[in-house]
Amino acid sequence: MFVCVPITLVLLVSFSTAVRADESRAFAERELEVIAALINHGVASDTPIVIIADHTTGDPAAVVVDAETAAAIVTQLDIPRAALDNWSLRNTLPRLIDQPLNLEVSYHLLSERSLFELFNNVEPQQGWLQFFKRYPGAPGILRLSRAGFDDSLSHALVYIEHQCGAECGAGRLVHLERADGAWRVQGGALVWMTE
Hints:
The chain is of the alpha/beta class. The chain is built from five helices and seven strands; from the N terminus they run αβααβααβββββ. Strands 1, 2, 3, 4, 5, 6 and 7 form a seven-stranded mixed sheet that branches. The longest helix has 36 residues, at 7-42.
């Protein structure tokens, strides 16, 4: 059976798909800008290399456990609640970082397989010795969440972990704001730290 679909409907669907693709591309570019601004802010320019896990962290429930915690984060970081909600929504699953980052230092994306090879079936300290031998000058491993945005796309929230040894590391939520065409870190909230 042959079905006739009006050409205007086909054009409308094609146009709306193209618009969504353009919006998605712009959104992804904005997210990459936020991640680059965050890393560039926190890493010294003379750092030989930065090692970044090639998958985002996922699982925001481990950070934002209830409404009271969410309200405290919004207040402490002075960030719109919409950015926190968007961040929670966008980080339900890990995602591959598959686009180049515009960093001021050299970097390497560390695959899950490489992480497994370095740290599986060895004492944590031994795994870190192997890591620093393989990546001399690296300050450790950065793990990032996806960025969450407010409705105006001018505020962003990112979770970042810095792991630097068996008993060395910290995780924090960071608020960035876009002004004059650039993202700048506005503040952070410590989520955890090894002692």
